[in-house]
Recover the amino acids of this structure.
């Protein structure tokens, strides 16, 4: 059964870069589309972007100028970089697998990233 | 982007009740809609995709319907485990994915 696990710093200073990695186990990263999704405390879900094993990416237009998503197939990992963060970027960040035309599943457990000095 | 609304934002109900949550989109998405359940402190769980297809392992008391711009999630007989927040998500081809704002289902 495929499992995803986010990792990275839980605290980032304003104007700096948020970096997270998602490690995929129980399956190959070459088989699916991989997304980052975030959820500010007490609020709804926002899709950030996705990547394929080929490196092809698509981003949420509202975040596109600040987001990079990359993939390391040798490590079965994909990563998120979000630049110039502000307090508005404080959220639980999830990685998730997209089942073709069938929803996000599975999800990682999520990791809280707080932007504060 | 495709905008999404959900109603109601909060729903109070009792065990055994039948409840319905509505999701509307700003443009037609055919049947490219999924529903998720989220409990506090946990990741969302996929319930339904393609508007009405039940994900494997999801109880049959959950059902989805609709197409175009209006969709519903129904729970036929609420169980204690069903009290959670529910999100819809559209995935129309060539459009960014977007989620609805959520409906919190509370115990009356």
């Amino acid at each position: 059964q495929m499992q995803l696990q986010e990792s990275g710093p839980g605290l980032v200073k304003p104007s700096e870069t948020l970096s997270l990695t998602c490690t995929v186990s129980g399956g190959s990263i070459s088989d699916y589309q991989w997304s980052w999704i975030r959820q500010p405390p007490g609020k709804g879900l926002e899709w950030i972007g996705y990547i394929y094993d080929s490196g092809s990416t698509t981003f949420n237009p509202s975040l596109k100028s600040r987001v990079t998503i990359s993939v390391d197939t040798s490590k079965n990992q994909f990563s998120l970089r979000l630049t110039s963060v502000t307090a508005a970027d404080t959220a639980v960040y999830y990685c998730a697998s997209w089942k073709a035309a069938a929803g996000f599943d599975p999800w990682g457990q999520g990791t809280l990233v707080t932007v504060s000095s | 982007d495709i905008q999404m609304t959900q109603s109601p934002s909060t729903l109070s109900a009792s065990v055994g009740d039948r409840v319905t949550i509505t999701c509307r989109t700003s443009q037609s998405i055919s049947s490219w809609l999924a529903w998720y359940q989220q409990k506090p402190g946990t990741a969302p769980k996929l319930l339904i995709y393609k508007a009405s297809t039940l994900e494997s392992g999801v109880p049959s008391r959950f059902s989805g319907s609709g197409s175009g711009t209006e969709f519903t999630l129904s729970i036929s007989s609420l169980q204690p485990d069903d009290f959670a927040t529910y999100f819809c998500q559209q995935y129309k081809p060539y459009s960014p994915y977007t989620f609805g704002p959520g409906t919190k289902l509370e115990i009356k």
User: Anything to note?
Assistant: The CA atoms of residues 2 and 29 of chain B lie 9 Å apart. Chain B has a mean pLDDT of 97. The interface with chain A takes residues 1, 32, 34, 36, 42-46, 48-50, 53, 55, 87, 89, 91, 96-102 of chain B (CB under 8 Å).
